[in-house]
Amino acid sequence: MKLNRAVLLLPLCVVACAMTETMQMAPPRTPDYLPHGDALRALTVTNAGTSTATVVVLTQAVAIKETGPKQTVARFGEVYAFAPAFFAVHRDEPTLIRFWNLQPDDEHDFLLFDPHNNALMKVTFPPLSETAFVFTFHEEGLFPFICPMHRPEMNGQILVLPASPKTIQ
Fold first, then answer.
1. In whole angstroms, what separates CA 24 from the centre of its chain?
2. Strand partners, 59
3. CA–CA separation, 61 vs 147, rounded Å?
4. Backbone phi, then psi, for 43, in 5-degree steps?
């Protein structure tokens, strides 16, 4: 069976494009807080800068009152998700992460934790908005994130891998 390579490579391009992108956009809202103090050992986050990879994270409505399914909404309430809910980046590689809140009437939060479960940053995404930051992770490991307003369903993880050979040079 012959597979189309474009179909196999598409998810990789969405998660981490190899092109360099310079971001000059400010978030629609000032973050509640960004990494500071000891947290800067694990992560730095900026509103602008040059990145070597890009990730787009979308908010998805899984079950909402406007479109149902009504039984699901009645039992669990509205259910949202981040997509992708899992992606990997390299340590010490600036990565532009663009968050798209696709819901017209719901805000979402992004609360990021380090591998030791310490809160690193929190920002709110207004409805129908794009918010972007350049993340540089300085510690390897699994960094969980949640939307506190829609937890436990709306969560995800960022896996920070060792520095890529091009970053070490």
1. 18
2. 82
3. 13
4. -160, 140
- The ranges of the chain with pLDDT < 50 are 1-28
Strands 95-101 and 53-63: parallel
Q: Give the Cα separation of 144 and 95 in Å (integer).
A: 17
Torsion sign across C-alpha atoms 41, 47, 52, 53: positive
In angstroms, what is the C-alpha Rg of the chain?
A: 17
CA pair distance 42, 119, nearest whole angstrom: 11
Q: Which two tokens stand for residue 55?
A: 């990730």
CA separation for the pair 106, 89 (Å, rounded): 28
Say if CB 51 and CB 27 are below 8 A apart. Answer: no
The 10s digit of each residue's pLDDT in 110-134 is 999 999 999 999 999 999 999 999 9
Residues in the chain, total: 169
Contact 39, 122 (CB under 8 A): no
What is the C-alpha separation between 123 and 88, in angstroms, rounded? 21
Give the predicted TM-score (pTM) of the model: 0.78
Residue 29 makes CB contacts below 8 A (sequence gap 6+) with 123, 124, 125, 126, 131
| Cα distance between residue 99 and residue 123, in whole Å | 11
At residue 76, the pLDDT reads 87
